[in-house]
Design a protein that fits this description.
By secondary structure, the protein is α/β, with parallel strands linked by helices. It has seven helices and five strands, in the order αβαβαβααααββ.
Length: about 190
């Protein structure tokens, strides 16, 4: 059976048996916190458990590496929406050790795209059009430095009101241990 067919079959039973009732909450985060974390599969259940977060407690935004790549991209917009529209009062960036974005290599990445069927001509067109693929596909050497960089981009955004604490943490995906990199209360 194909993945989406399995999902829809399960969903039909989920709805029929009213399993959704135990997840009912409002759109406003109970803990008034928005988290930017990595999309790593190891964090799906581990991160909330390690932080004592229940359904409805926080807004979670995910991106590869928990990176705010552009100050006016969709990640930053989502964080600002959580603050102004959904009443979040604090922001937390959480990177993790052994991240797939660490030391990512643009050339190796693009080779994989070609292997999967993207024509070299498309990549060349992007380069000729001025798209800096090396910059766009840039990873990081230090997860702590990457978290600091994302915290800095958020904290200094012209549309973020002063006084919103922006924290930076790193989680160990093997144990769930959290280490503080930036304490937003001290900034």
């Amino acid at each position: 059976m194909r993945i989406i067919d399995e999902i829809l079959l399960h969903n039909e039973k989920f709805v029929a048996e009213k399993e959704y009732e135990k997840f009912e909450t409002t759109k406003f985060p109970n803990k008034k916190l928005v988290i930017l974390s990595c999309m790593d599969t190891r964090l799906v259940e581990l991160l909330p458990k390690a932080m004592n977060i229940q359904n409805g407690d926080v807004k979670i935004v995910k991106s590869a590496g928990a990176i705010v790549a552009h100050p006016f991209g969709s990640i930053m917009r989502s964080i600002l929406v959580a603050v102004y529209e959904l009443k979040a009062d604090e922001i937390c960036v959480i990177g993790h050790h052994d991240c797939g974005m660490s030391k990512i290599n643009a050339d190796a990445f693009l080779e994989k795209a070609v292997e999967r069927g993207i024509p070299e001509e498309k990549i060349d067109t992007l380069r000729y059009s001025g798209v800096d693929l090396n910059q766009w596909l840039q990873g990081f050497d230090s997860v702590e430095d990457s978290v600091r960089d994302s915290v800095d981009k958020i904290k200094n955004h012209p549309l973020l009101v002063n006084g919103i604490p922006v924290h930076g943490l790193v989680i160990d995906p093997a144990t769930g241990k959290l280490d503080m990199v930036v304490n937003g209360y001290d900034e």
